[in-house]
Amino acid sequence: MLVSPRFTAVFRHLSSRCSPLLYWLLLGLASPLQARSPHYALPNAEAPVALLPVGRATYLVTAHSVLDLSGRQPVLRYHSAALVRCALATDSVVWLGTEQGLLRLSIRRKQAAWPARLLALPAPAGPAPVTALVRDAGGVVWAGIGGYGVYQVLGNELQSLLRIPAVTSGLATADSTVWIGTNLGLHRWQHGAWTRYNEEGVANHEIPDNLVEKLLLDNSGSLWVIMSDAITVFENTTHPQTSPGHLPTVKYLGRPGNEIYSVAYLPGQGHVFATAMGLLLLPAQPVGELAHFENITDRVETPQVLVPLTLAGTAIAGPCLLQVDARQRIWVVQAGSARVWRRQDFRPAAPRPTTPPRT
Predict the structure, then answer these.
(1) Which DSSP string do the residues of 314-326 spell out, in sequence order?
(2) What is the DSSP letter of 69?
(3) Are 9 and 34 in contact (CB under 8 A)?
């Protein structure tokens, strides 16, 4: 249980003036009140990379560290000298994609520091940045390696699967598909074959931009393809009863150049985006112009469509992770801070006061 100093002071004042029975009632009340919004002050100010739930444990990977958030205080499990670009976890291993290659960390919960092993690229390749990590439906780990392409991890070796110069990101979806973002379009691996989506594509294999900057997967199962000049959504069709409804392809969210860090779907509310402009809500039942958006040149930019959100005492500044856990709580992780919120904590921001125009 994490208790704020202010709450502790008030609690001690009340407990010093009450009977032993009331004291224990207050103590029992403190746990559920404080458990609603755990807050971790992280020991560094590094940008978050990934939040990895493994059983009852939660591991946070930052630009140079792996932190265990299972207890009251974060525990440093590994420090990487090389910059960490991506990460994923299995029951016994945390994989780190770094600027110098692929690291395999053995999870040893009873050890303060975890042993690491570097997996070498096949000759003649030397150290190279790992820019994407994916675990497919069969449990196989995939790695996107800058300058070389996409590899599968088979035992202690890396086997080439797709030769392509620049891999920007990768994700696996519930339909047993692996998606790879590149500077030459979006690549989809399904049923043992590749399909490429690009600007020059035909039929259903077209996307509005070849430069895929990042891939984001929300908790409804929809895949968000963030490109240099557009945003496309591949909606989850495996569970249509939980689908948030049609999501259009748009040019940008908020304003041109607004960076999107992560996205979460809140049932009954809509999609929440962590962006350079702060938290923005795309309502579940859009109104106004968004109701008839179909063409890829349409834009989600008006204040009637995107709703700014606030969290008490929290401002989005720089890269931010939004992630919904198994208890339907929303983790908000930034440099130096990780906090857990409930859906009802995400509230519309108060409108800014306007100054009447001069006459």
Answers:
(1) B---SS-EEEE-T
(2) -
(3) no
